[in-house]
Amino acid sequence: MAWATRVFGQAHRVLMAAANTSATVTTTASATAPKRGRPAGILRVVPVSPALGEFLGVSEVSRTDAVKKVWEYIKLNNLQNPSNKKEILCDAKLKTIFNGKDQVGFLEIAKLMSQHFIKSS
User: Fold this and answer.
1) 98: which of 25, 88, 117, 121 lies 20 to 30 Å off by Cα?
2) What's the CATH number where 88 sits?
3) Domain check: are 48 and 84 in the same one?
4) Distance CA 45, CA 93 (A)
5) Is residue 50 located within the same domain as residue 108?
6) Widest distance between CA atoms in the chain
7) pLDDT range class, residue 41, cuts 50, 70, 90
8) Structural Rg of the chain based on CA atoms
9) Phi, psi of 46 (to 5 degrees)
10) Which residues of 6-32 are buried (b: 16+ CB within 10 A; e: fewer)?
11) What span, in angstroms and rounded, lies between the C-alpha atoms of 117 and 53?
12) What is the DSSP letter of 59?
């Protein structure tokens, strides 16, 4: 930093000091900003169909929490196809929410679950 003072003079120090203090102020202000109101999108809690409600044990849930609980159930009951991990082998309980399918690809899960979330206008 000593070379910067020799090359740019004292003005360099003043500018760098101003830049450091303004950067500190902006990061501190954004870190303490209050959170907004209710969650939106996939984080919003919405009513679910009776079939999904029975599976999850609740009548309202966010999409992210529903997918997490379904994946917990799949992993707990070892329902992933051992030879193809992208495939889920459905038991009787999963068939109730996956339209009676015996096998479901893991990319299909969100699509098949979307019909269980009741749209509100």
Assistant:
1) 121
2) 1.10.245.10
3) yes
4) 23
5) yes
6) 78
7) confident
8) 26
9) -130, 160
10) eeeeeeeeeeeeeeeeeeeeeeeeeee
11) 10
12) S
Q: What Å distances lie between residue 60 and 55, 84, 93, CA to CA? A: 12, 33, 19
* Backbone φ and ψ of 4, nearest 5°: -65, -35
CB neighbours of residue 74 within 10 Å: 19
Identify the band that residue 40 occupies on the pLDDT scale cut at 50, 70 and 90: confident
Classified as helix, coil or strand, 24 is helix
Backbone angles phi, psi at 108, to 5 degrees: -80, -20
Bridge-based pairing state of the strands 46-47 and 103-105: unpaired
Predicted confidence band at 73 (pLDDT cuts at 50, 70, 90)?
Answer: very high
Q: In this structure, is residue 119 part of a structural domain? A: no
